[in-house]
Amino acid sequence: MIRTIKRRAALAGFLAVPAAARSAAVAQTAAGQRVSITQAGGRVFAARLFLPAKKPAPGILVVHDGFGAVADLDRVGDLLAFEGFAAVVVDLFDGKTARTDEEAAVLARALDGALARDVLGQWFDWLRSRDFCNRRLASIGFGIGASHSVAVSSGARVSATGIYYGRVEETAEQLHDIDGVMVGHFAERDTWATPLSRIDLELRLKRAQRDFQFHVYRGAGGFANPLSRNYDRGDAALAWNRTVATFKPACGLAP
Description:
By secondary structure, the chain is of the alpha/beta class.
């Protein structure tokens, strides 16, 4: 199902939560703590972990776009913890971050796709092995992060997968192995995750008989990232609200 929306002042997520509620979110979740995994060759990949008040909880990977694991994603992790998830904000760029869309494009192009998918698979395994995780898994990926997180979700027995303006190349057969619901947020004027690529993905998902919801926004890619020139506060908030509303029941949490 695809829905196209007009720009509006619909505030949700951390953009809409009143100050008192934001304080409660911080008070009720553990402070983000540094965690890491080590690959067979000894390379270490760090992440920030945000835990909910009630455990065990569903585990969720938050995968950055070309801007890297910026501070805004820590706020996303904290709010996911407030919603009842054990959130891991991964860093695929070894601490590198971008300040502009141009710098973000350079970092995204330099990312080793096979390495990124291997690292994300390890983070899924890491979550499954933690006492605070109830073995339900999900992911939210932005841009290039969505492309890789969708690939890793294939065969990973996930409950939900979130795509923010990501270009997904997996075949219908590979998409068939993604369990749970998929929620996608796309932009009409995106020049990377283009409307044509989104329509093609929709057709592959239909052939794979997957459960998905796609929403299309009247903007450009990066609309949910405050660092992007394409940031749209209203659309970002609406996309966040839709994601959380779908993810919570899919992962066994009360709405």
